[in-house]
């Protein structure tokens, strides 16, 4: 019964995969970008093996992070009416992922320049982003051109899974090796 | 997150390896029943404590009455210098007995060269000793993590705190198999928090959550009636000094009761910035006049005299609070008799610099206040004060302690036996401080500041800085402790001799890296 309920509420694997690919792309790419920023600092005193260890831990963290993010979207699917998210998961899920993760990235760039914001601006920013993400994802599924564009984008993003998933597996092996 | 309350501490003491005596012995009597009759050794390090701000060494404000009390039973080193001007080189000099140009612990949050990590006090003192380490400073803790194989119990940085406002999940996993790299990944790269060179988070969601907690901390603040400037903060978590020092004194008391000798290293954050003293220590000192010194070409601030006075006030108040809590620790250990069979050492890893356009110690400068640190050593049952005026270095502790415990002094040790503990004052000896945080640890030192102190003379060498390359400064510390009169071009002969010696020392230090 629960399975049937979930089956009715959760999106199909074919529409789940591209959304997950978008999340993976954004989460992993950000980490790699930040990693490159840190690299000159580490290169002063860490050797290549040690730097690869940091990279491995970061990749595993990204794996958990991306799974956590897709899990939240799936929970939203279960909670919200099917017509809002489940039936258009590939489009709305992608738009939400891009908006939320994109906003965090924009925010972190701002932080790097301007320092820690006040709690109020942080909360307002977060709420505004959530609202924008919901609004855009709602609108996106109404416009045919946007639907096809988003679907094209997300399905092409799956190529990154072929890069990032093996990278994660290698990272996992490295972490296991370092901790046994 | 690992957190040790006093109750946990007692549990740890009861169940940890080795046998404990059934209870504390009467006050004033030695607790130790060590089979091999070796003394305990405890090093208590106060981070960023400049000797120049301690009344113990003649500072005009009475900042350290309790250190003065402790000094009545100790050897007091008046010209003691750190191996570096910030945590990593300063601490590594003490623990490895090597100058930073040899250990290569020169970078912010850097490490001792991996194949040299076995060269440390914990290893050399030997496993006859029960070896305990604790550091509130995460960068110093990284060095301790390098020595984990030689440490019997490594307390995590978050031990001895009751206040928990930080978010870092991995803080405290100091003894996990890959604890050094997990620090760089989870405590430095992925979150926003901690002390790091870039305000950059490697993770979208961890960064966002971490920054939410930091925003909350910033907005809500940790200010209170008791702490008008907010709680002391080590970059990762808030704490209060009484709790930490009470925890450490409990621990030392417990360790003193073991029936095996103990070597303990305790690295406390205070009086490191942010300098947040409690209310009762604010404004306790009379106004002070400070000497206005010229802006240094390498300095980055344009601090006014008034602002420097405010920094002095904060720093001195903070030191007074640290000293007050040290006094409580001293009372407790004295009444428990824990000092009767112990060498008890008080020192620091580096000082602070509030002059010439610099604040604190993130600087290439190596003037006296930033490298001149306290050193006091009380011997078992010692009741007399001994004042040592000859220059000494952080690297001297390793050979001195090895000599005390009867272990051979390795040939690679760069320090000497401290006067008062087998060493003799030697006016011909040179003491070095090395600052090269932006230099590669794997290459010769091309961007470096070096201080060389010989007798009363001090030569400073700046190399590789933009618009300040190959510059020497010479000071006569005996007559000019404030380092106001550069004699480099006036006393040409002396300058030439010292320059030759310094460059020669640098040449040999760089030899292994000239590949």
CATH fold title of one domain in chain B: Alkaline Phosphatase, subunit A
Mean pLDDT of chain A: 90
Largest sheet of chain B: 8 strands, mixed
Q: What is the residue-averaged pLDDT of chain B?
A: 89
Compute the number of helices of chain A: 6
Helix tally of chain B equals: 13
Summary, kept brief:
With 180 residues, chain A is mainly alpha-helical. Chain A has helices spanning 2-9, 13-43, 48-79, 89-114, 119-140, 144-179.
Describe the fold and architecture.
The complex is a heterodimer of chains A (180) and B (515). Chain A is 86% helix and 0% strand. With 180 residues, chain A is mainly α. Chain A has one domain. Chain A is globular and about 55 Å long. The model of chain A has no long low-confidence stretch (mean pLDDT 90). Chain B is an alpha/beta fold and 515 residues long. Chain B has a domain at 39-165 and 222-428: 3-Layer(aba) Sandwich (Alkaline Phosphatase, subunit A), CATH 3.40.720.10. An 8-stranded mixed beta sheet of chain B has the order 5-4-6-1-7-8-2-9, with helices on both faces. In chain B, strands 11-12-13-14 form a 4-stranded antiparallel beta sheet, covered by helices on one side. In chain B, a hairpin with a 2-residue loop joins strand 12 and strand 13 (457-463). In chain B, helix 1 packs parallel to helix 9 and helix 9 (241-256) runs parallel beside helix 10 (305-336). Chain B is globular, with a radius of gyration of 22 Å. Mean pLDDT of chain B is 89; it is low at 10-31 and 163-169. At the A-B interface, helix 2, helix 3, helix 4, helix 5 and helix 6 of A face helix 7 and helix 8 of B.
């Amino acid at each position: 019964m629960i399975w049937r309920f979930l089956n009715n509420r959760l999106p199909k694997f074919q529409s789940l995969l591209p959304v997950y690919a978008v999340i993976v792309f954004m989460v992993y790419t950000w980490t790699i970008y930040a990693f490159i920023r840190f690299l000159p600092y580490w290169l002063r005193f860490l050797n290549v093996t040690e730097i690869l260890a940091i990279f491995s831990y970061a990749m595993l963290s990204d794996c958990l992070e991306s799974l956590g993010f897709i899990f939240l979207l799936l929970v939203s699917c279960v909670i919200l009416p099917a017509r809002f998210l489940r039936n258009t998961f590939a489009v709305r899920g992608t738009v939400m992922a891009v908006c939320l993760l994109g906003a965090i990235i924009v925010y972190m760039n701002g932080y790097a320049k301007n320092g820690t914001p006040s709690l109020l601006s942080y909360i307002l920013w977060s709420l505004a982003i959530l609202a924008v993400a919901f609004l855009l994802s709602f609108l996106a599924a109404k416009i045919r051109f946007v639907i096809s564009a988003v679907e094209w984008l997300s399905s092409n993003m799956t190529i990154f899974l072929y890069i990032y998933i093996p990278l994660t597996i290698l990272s996992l092996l490295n972490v296991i090796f370092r901790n046994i | 997150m690992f957190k040790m309350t006093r109750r946990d501490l007692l549990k740890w003491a009861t169940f940890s390896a080795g046998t404990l005596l059934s209870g504390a012995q009467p006050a004033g009597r030695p607790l130790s029943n060590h089979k091999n009759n070796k003394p305990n050794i405890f090093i208590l390090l106060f981070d960023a404590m400049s000797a120049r701000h301690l009344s113990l060494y003649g500072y005009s404000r009475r900042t350290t009455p309790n250190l003065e009390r402790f000094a009545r039973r100790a050897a007091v080193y008046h010209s003691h210098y750190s191996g570096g001007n910030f945590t990593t080189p300063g601490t590594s000099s003490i623990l490895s007995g090597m100058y930073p140009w040899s250990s290569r612990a020169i970078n912010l949050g850097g490490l001792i060269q991996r194949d040299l990590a076995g060269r440390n006090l914990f290893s050399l003192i030997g496993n006859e000793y029960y070896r305990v380490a604790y550091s509130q400073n995460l960068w110093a803790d990284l060095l301790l993590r390098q020595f984990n194989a030689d440490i019997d119990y490594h307390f995590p940085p978050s031990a001895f705190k009751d206040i928990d406002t930080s978010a870092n999940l991995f803080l405290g996993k100091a003894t996990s198999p890959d604890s050094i790299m997990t620090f760089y990944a989870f405590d430095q790269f992925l979150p926003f928090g901690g002390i790091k060179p870039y305000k950059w988070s490697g993770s979208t969601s961890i960064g966002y959550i971490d920054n939410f907690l930091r925003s909350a901390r910033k907005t809500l603040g940790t200010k209170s009636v008791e702490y008008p400037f907010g709680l002391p903060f080590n970059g990762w978590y808030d704490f209060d000094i009484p709790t930490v020092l009470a925890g450490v004194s409990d621990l030392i008391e417990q360790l003193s009761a073991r029936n095996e000798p103990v070597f303990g290293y305790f690295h406390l954050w205070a009086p490191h910035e942010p300098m947040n003293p409690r209310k009762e220590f604010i404004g306790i000192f009379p106004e002070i006049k400070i000497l206005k010194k010229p802006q240094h070409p390498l300095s980055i601030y344009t601090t006014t005299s008034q602002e420097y006075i405010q920094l002095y006030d904060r720093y001195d108040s903070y030191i007074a609070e640290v000293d007050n809590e040290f006094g409580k620790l001293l009372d407790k250990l004295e009444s428990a008799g824990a000092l009767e069979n112990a060498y008890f050492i008080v020192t620091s890893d580096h000082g602070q610099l509030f002059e010439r356009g610099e604040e604190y110690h993130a600087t290439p400068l190596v003037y006296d206040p930033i490298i001149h640190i306290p050193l006091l050593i009380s011997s078992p049952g010692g009741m007399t004060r001994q004042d040592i005026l000859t220059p000494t270095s952080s690297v001297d502790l390793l050979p001195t302690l090895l000599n005390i415990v009867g272990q051979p002094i390795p040939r690679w040790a760069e320090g000497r036996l401290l006067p008062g503990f087998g060493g003799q004052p030697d006016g011909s000896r040179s003491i070095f401080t090395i600052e090269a945080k932006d230099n590669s640890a794997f290459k010769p030192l091309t961007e470096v500041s070096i201080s060389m102190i010989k007798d009363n003379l001090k030569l400073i060498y700046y190399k590789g800085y933009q618009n300040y390359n190959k510059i020497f400064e010479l000071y006569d510390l005996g007559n000019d402790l404030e380092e106001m009169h550069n004699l480099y071009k006036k006393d040409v002969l002396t300058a030439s001799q010292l320059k030759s010696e310094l460059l020669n020392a640098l040449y040999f230090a760089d030899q292994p890296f000239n590949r």
